[in-house]
Write a structure and sequence with these properties.
2 copies of one chain form a homodimer. Chain A is built from 24 helices and 6 strands. The first copy, chain A, has 449 residues and is mostly helical. A 3-stranded mixed β-sheet of chain A has the order 1-2-3. A 3-stranded mixed β-sheet of chain A has the order 4-5-6. In chain A, strand 2 and strand 3 form a beta hairpin. Chain A starts with 5 loop residues before the first helix and ends with a helix. At the A-B interface, helix 12, helix 13, helix 15, helix 16 and helix 17 of A face helix 12, helix 13, helix 15, helix 16 and helix 17 of B.
Chain lengths: 449, 449
């Protein structure tokens, strides 16, 4: 592997561009693999992108456009000369063209379609919502027939001249186009040339309807390790197929949503830097406000213990430390459980075991933290009685936070709510008010306030 | 798609098992697809697993064992009769056998190898660490020669009779076995039968050394959409190849580690419920203690403002609310930035833009939260001056938390530290002490304390 060094390639490319040597620049780009080309391209100013793309080999330009985000690709296409657009779009996969068209106004789409050689390939794809199976599928596929022999099937592939080097499965239909089975290229090659497909095809094909949501598509393809998923209509007629690379992005988007939700914010709909200040604020203010209102319970608890606070102002020094540690312990627990739920290490039926597990872990952690807190309080010159209060409080709060952190994600999952809503911020907010109550109750007893 | 309903299948299976109808149970299982079989199997008691597995078709048993976690598979294998083990292991992929053997004692491995027909296939794989390219690869592959024609290559595949239906790429070597290129099955079928591979193979193959870490392997396969990655030695001799399904688990493990780290804990090495109380505690106590010691700065700040607190005990009522909101705002920011970094939406060179973005978002959020906090404080009967203090403090703290939350993940990434260490717990801990300082400084000025 010749490793790809983006800085190195960029500086070479910029040198060629500054010297107005477009040919040299195009050569540098064309030597790269598509994902590397895309990374380089995104780092170039728009003017250079518009200058370079039409000079590249149309196949390579098409691959590059497919690798870019739809919105970036659409922006680029708008700035290109019309004949360059036609040439590049002709070389793109129909499903990618359909996705790209989703970014344009209907009249621009109609106009572009009139300029294409084969608009019928793309037209049906435009009818499906982009986030459905129909929106993900390509209509370019070879359907084999049951009565074909292995040799005839291989000849059909040879004549079809597919572009896709990942090609490994082909679908078999009856004479009206109903999906009947699948064969792999491997099977076609290994079989006796005169064997009929019906004899060795796999009739148990997983397929989806055109309206199936893309997250379900992604889940199926991941669970069953599918590279190709056929899309059918209500009569089981084969409409198209989805390839795995169309779904990888869906899986990545889902992971992004999870992590943003874990941070206590609604998922962003677009790449981060592209969202405006107001849009990002809107995604965050709701949760922040809800957490604020819940958190304001802490004020109520503190007012309740006003006389204790007045008698011993030193009690307040430990407030952030105690509730902060509780929130941290709770976050550790929920993040572990949320992930264990997601990958299937635990299920709702394990709720009691998980709870008992966290209770014991909480006790161990609490004892450890309590001992350290006792020492820290004495170091600050607190009385032994106050130090014992702090130690007891931190131990109890950690156990409580762990128990709560174990229960909430499972409860959410039971109620069919995404467990990632029980994020770190939610946990610390819940632990804060209850933790203060625990703290002052212990203080009242131990310090006889 | 005949949808898979685990409860339904389980109850049918349990009924067969209770009626001692092992045949019926095996039939029910064998009708399922492998991932579904594995889910069902994991839900059965160990005794039933040991009874069912040897009755199943060896190919299916092998697939099922491969789908289970290595440790579960090893436990099951230990409990099976020896001849059943030999039969099933013979049907497994060599790389999966090697992984499984990693769970056994060396003498058991040696003993099992003596019972296999082809121990040489597995032996070299045992030499590589499990988390390296050598540990992931399979040694079962067909190497083609440059001077072969497309027809000869197809005949070689036909004679080799591979099992893998995903087969789509084959590698080309010179006469001493050095990796020279790759061809796809598609190319072999589409090419003129008499064309030599050297004429149309892709000579620019991405390959790795046997010692390459599995995370680098996963990164390469994901970035370049590779289904097969050849593994070579220092002389570029082809040793084996890694298939994509071996890497999917690596990618999933990485996501798990990220999420656990985001919760402020070290990643667990094993499935959650399998780890003991002490082991889980060990993974968490370090961070919890470090955060505690950092958080104890809050005590120092509060002691510094002791006289203000004594003069106006009501100031303490707002402590958890103010620092909690700051921590939440910071967590929202870091989680967004960490993910944007991971998927490549931003890079270090965007640091200034991201910081400016968050500063503006923070200002908007801060103004909104300040207005609400002002109202909330008045509702609690605070004086207008105290309410203004709270509003100003929350606005400043949110802006500060957002700015800090934007900078830290990028700083970590710049220092080549995994940005996920800047987790929610770390953010709230950092914001707590600094937030208190902001709060009391504002209080001192506005309330003239």
């Amino acid at each position: 592997l010749t490793t790809f060094n983006i800085e190195h390639v960029l500086s070479r490319l910029r040198a060629s561009l500054e010297a107005n040597d477009l040919n040299q620049a195009v050569q540098t780009l064309e030597k790269l693999r598509t994902p590397d080309q895309a990374e380089i391209f995104e780092a170039l100013p728009a003017g250079d992108q518009v200058a370079l793309l039409p000079q590249m080999d149309p196949e390579q330009s098409a691959d590059l456009l497919e690798e870019l985000e739809d919105r970036d690709a659409a922006g680029l296409v708008r700035a290109l000369p019309r004949e360059a657009v036609t040439r590049i779009v002709e070389a793109m996969e129909p499903d990618e063209v359909a996705d790209l068209m989703g970014e344009f106004e209907p009249e621009d789409v109609r106009e572009l379609l009139t300029r294409l050689e084969d608009p019928e390939e793309i037209h049906p794809l435009l009818l499906h919502p982009q986030d459905s199976a129909g929106g993900l599928m390509t209509s370019q596929f070879l359907a084999l027939r049951r009565r074909m022999t292995a040799r005839e099937a291989l000849q059909a592939v040879h004549a079809w001249k597919p572009q896709d080097d990942y090609l490994s499965f082909l679908f078999v239909v009856d004479k009206s186009g109903h999906l009947m089975g699948e064969v792999s290229l491997r099977q076609l090659i290994v079989a006796n040339p005169q064997d009929e497909l019906a004899g060795f095809m796999n009739p148990d094909v997983i397929s989806v309807r055109a309206g199936t949501d893309q997250e379900e598509v992604a889940r199926l393809m991941k669970r069953y390790d599918l590279l190709y998923l056929p899309v059918v209509d209500r009569e089981n007629m084969l409409l198209g197929m989805i390839t795995f690379d169309d779904v990888i992005d869906v899986l990545e988007d889902e992971a992004t949503e999870d992590i943003q939700r874990l941070g206590g914010a609604l998922p962003l709909d677009e790449p981060y830097l592209r969202m405006g200040t107001f849009a990002v604020t809107r995604k965050r203010i709701g949760w922040l406000m809800l957490l604020f209102l819940t958190e304001s319970l802490t004020g109520t608890v503190l007012r309740h213990f006003q006389s204790e606070l007045q008698t011993m102002v030193a009690l307040s020094f430990f407030i952030p430390l105690l509730i902060g540690t509780g929130g941290n312990a709770g976050s550790q627990t929920t993040s572990t459980l949320i992930r264990a739920l997601a990958v299937g290490d635990i299920s709702i039926s394990d709720a009691l075991r998980a709870w008992w597990h966290e209770l014991r872990v909480g006790l161990l952690l609490g004892l450890g933290m309590g001992a350290v807190a006792y020492g820290r309080a004495l170091l600050w010159g607190s009385s032994p009685a106050l130090a014992i209060t702090i130690a007891l409080a931190i131990c109890t709060i950690v156990v409580w936070a762990n128990a709560l952190g174990a229960v909430l994600p499972l409860l959410a999952s039971r109620l069919r709510i995404d467990p990632t809503v029980v994020s770190g911020p939610v946990m610390s907010t819940l632990v804060d008010a209850t933790g203060l109550f625990i703290y002052f109750s212990i203080a009242r007893i131990v310090l006889k306030l």
